Amino acid sequence: MSALAHVRDGGRAVVRRTAVIDLGSNSFRLVVFSVGESGWWKRTDELSEMVRLGGDLGPDGELSPQRMAHALETLRVFAAFCATNGIRTDQIEAVATSAVRDAPNGEEFVQRARRATGLPIRILSQRDEAWFSYVAAVNQTALTDGIVLDIGGGSLELVAVEDRQAVECVSWQLGAVRVSERFLHGDGPADPDEIEQLRQHALAQFATQPWVATAGRDRLVGIGGALRNLATAAIRAAEVPLDSVQGFVLTPAALDSLIEQLAERSPEERERVPGIKRGRAEVILGGAIVLRAVLEATGADGIEVIEAGLREGIFLAGELAPADPPIVPDVRRASVVNLARQHGVDLVHAEHIAELADQLVGALPGAGLPAPGEPELVDAAALLHDVGMAVDYDDHHKHSSYLILGSGLPGFTPREVALVALMARYHRKGTPQLGTFAPLCEEGDDELLLRGAALLRIAEQLERNRDQVVRGARLRRDEDDEDGVVLELDAEGDTVVAEWAALRQGDLFARAFGASLTVARS
């Protein structure tokens, strides 16, 4: 069967799986990534345990016996999970980071863990940890120039990026667990002097690398569990309609507010701040102070948060090999196509609709009509409008909308994701409106949505038979009606259904563009 046939049939079958195990300083995570026959990939399973291996270190920084025992038991569970799910050792990447790397008995612990579990555990160097964080960020955002930040339990990495290439990287012992145990003492509200000492310590570390003060002004992209948790809390506080932190920008003001709320509570009470996870409550303030210092040192307007992390970086580095560096050419396009393939979208049909919609967008100025703006969003919606068919035909426009929203569409902003989802939501029927997503949008986005949805709906109707008979579509002013527009079709074959279906969208077209619509073959 040809690759194209696979896409038409969905290409949804899983052809291989990879498990990535991250032995972090705070939590251990096992993530399973599946790859489909048509080239899609996604995270399909996950186990996690708050081990806090980087806590309770000995006087010389050695891992504690109690923490190691917890870690070994967790790794036995992970190994059993892989075995019972048919994931072979050669399909597992297991890496240890700062806590193990920096401990005098870290290598001894890894040897014990290998013998006890059979897992192929290796210790990542500081540079490798930073590199995989960079790979994750540059493949999950539209980052071109700026800084990638990764905050873990034991360390903080910063990577300078120019033209999508990593040019500088550095790692400091500024992870959330490590700084909390070193600087923030006591069981009550945080001591302001200790907070200031931590802030000054972090700023002094950043000052040793002059590029930190300038590289992040263009864009600062961040990964790490503490950052994601803080972003979740900021989203809750702002009451914006987001179910994912992907693309959310954590501003200095939002971070200051969270630091104030966290500092006035005891470590045990910090989980009461809406959005803060119980397992991170004791160390989240330390992480927040370090992140605020990063913003101060870089002068960035905020930290763009992504769902991906070190684990995705390791997986993608393997998937994209031997590319050097392992990055996709166009993150936004790859994100859209990946979601479409995950859910078996007929890309021949969808791409033809996208082409027709693009032709209509291009014809608007010549017909004296206002363009919707941001045609890339119309294109994305065209490719994804039928993704909800994977759930059911009935209401598939609604299913498409929530699948798009749930995916986060890496490379797009939350506002853009909402607009793409809404265009897909209204590709069949209904009056396009921003609704609950208005807080994410900008002035004029209601018109953008209305016009984009109208063009998508017409393009969909021209391909109603899924036969690509209508090869082209143009708009021109009606010579016999100054308020009318003619939709001219370039076609080979019967266009009875296409003409009938397109003409039924005349009311929406008139609402969007202020002109009546007629259909004719050229």
Automatic annotation (TrEMBL):
Limits of the Ppx/GppA phosphatase C-terminal domain: 331-489
Record flagged with keyword Hydrolase: yes
Ppx/GppA phosphatase N-terminal domain residues: 47-316
Keyword field: Hydrolase
Family to which the UniProt record says this protein belongs: Belongs to the GppA/Ppx family.
Protein name per its UniProtKB record: Ppx/GppA phosphatase family protein
